[in-house]
Amino acid sequence: MRHPHSGLIPVDKPPGVSSRRVVDAVARALAMKTVGHAGTLDPLARGVVVVCVGNATKLVDYLHELPKQYAASFLLGRSSPSDDFETAVEEEIDPARPDRAAIEAALPAFRGQILQRPCDYSAVHVDGKRAYSLARKGREIDLPLKPVRIDRLDVVGYEWPRLEVEIICSAGTFVRALGRDLAMALGTRGVMESLVRTASGPFRLCDATPLDGIDPDTARAALLPPLVAVAHLPRTVLAAEQLDRAVRGGLIDLTDVETTAQAPAVAAVDTAGELVGILRRHDSGHHRLRPNFRGVG
């Protein structure tokens, strides 16, 4: 049976609050120590932060596979060290003012698989320290390009200097950097004015619990079963004898299950439909249950 305090809670984080504070609020409400989140959201931003509780914290890596959706606005013709309003903003003198057609023409280069330079003011590790810590000390930072995926990048509003866009992208994408680089491609500079994470995978902002509404009763009511974290994976039901063999480290032959024949990872549920573990492909072509995922439900 699923532990009553294992699962996920999508929380609506307000601007000015860190993702850590969201985790702490849920931990206090449920009197739990094993609590984490599935993706940091900038303190200045609003939006969905998916909090994992109890054994569901073991599923964070699978939540990171899910795309994120954002609504963002940028102000063109200005720049800042942090690429947003966290640091002092400097306006350009006589900046270029691209029209809507020029912006639309520049967008295709930023869709699909791209290489992105993370922001200097970010949590990326550099020589064992966070980039933002070094940036605040005035250190020059050489951050390597990282691959990210942009599934959607559409202009939804533009009146100089404000550019409003909607984005669907892979986890780890820096929206501030996206606006910075798009502005540079247009011959100007840009800073992020506002950011809202409207969805994280299937978890939508409109369904999330407001942070100021988190208490023991609302947290328990909002707790979703761990299975929703891996709803994007193929699924198979393990009979009692298969589950027992997997828990003891034995291989499970699922080659006769069509939906799992080629999948690198499969969500395994028991006959009651509760998540019991993740099956990973073995070198022999079999699948087995990773023992450390026993009890994710």
Break the fold down into its secondary structure elements and pairings:
Blueprint: E1 7-13, H1 19-30, E2 35-37, E3 46-53, H2 60-63, E4 68-76, E5 78-79, E6 90-91, H3 100-106, E7 112-116, E8 125-126, E9 129-130, H4 131-136, E10 146-159, E11 162-169, H5 175-185, E12 190-200, E13 203-204, E14 209-210, H6 216-222, E15 235-237, H7 240-247, E16 251-252, E17 265-269, E18 275-281, E19 287-289
Parallel strand pairs: 1-14, 3-12, 15-17
Antiparallel strand pairs: 1-3, 2-3, 4-11, 4-12, 5-6, 7-10, 8-9, 10-11, 12-13, 16-19, 17-18, 18-19
Q: Any descriptors?
A:
five-stranded mixed beta sheet, Archaeosine Trna-guanine Transglycosylase, Chain: A, domain 4, 19 strands, Pseudouridine synthase, ten-stranded mixed beta sheet, 297 residues, 3 domains, alpha+beta
How would you describe this structure to a colleague?
This protein is of the alpha+beta class. It has 3 domains: 7-65 and 202-228, Pseudouridine synthase, CATH 3.30.2350; 68-195, Pseudouridine synthase (2-Layer Sandwich); 233-293, Archaeosine Trna-guanine Transglycosylase, Chain: A, domain 4. It is built from 7 helices and 19 strands. It has helices at residues 19-30, 60-63, 100-106, 131-136, 175-185, 216-222, 240-247, and strands at residues 7-13, 35-37, 46-53, 68-76, 78-79, 90-91, 112-116, 125-126, 129-130, 146-159, 162-169, 190-200, 203-204, 209-210, 235-237, 251-252, 265-269, 275-281, 287-289. The strands form 4 sheets. Strands 1, 2, 3, 4, 7, 10, 11, 12, 13 and 14 form a 10-stranded mixed β-sheet that branches. A 5-stranded mixed β-sheet has the order 15-17-18-19-16. A hairpin with a 5-residue loop joins strand 17 and strand 18. Helix 1 crosses helix 6 (216-222). It is elongated and about 75 Å long. The termini are close together. The relative contact order is 0.19. The mean pLDDT is 86.
